[in-house]
Write a structure and sequence with these properties.
The chain has 69 residues and is mainly alpha-helical. Helix content is 59%, strand content 9%. The protein has a two-stranded antiparallel ribbon with strand order 1-2. β1 and β2 form a beta hairpin.
Length: 69
Amino acid sequence: MTHYEQISNMLTTGEVAHLLNVPSGTVRRWSDRKIIKAYRIGPRGERRYRRDDIAVFLLQRAVQKYLKG
């Protein structure tokens, strides 16, 4: 897989926010706090998120919610 294909397969902050049903600011805050892994790309340092990382995050949240009852 080329570098371009890897980047184009990543999600933007807005896409992650939509998937998680939270505001974009929340996604950025979670990224700053290392709750969600973000990758900085390009000269502006835009954030991108791997789909696998978001899937793991969702699974962890579901398990925590289940364990709390």
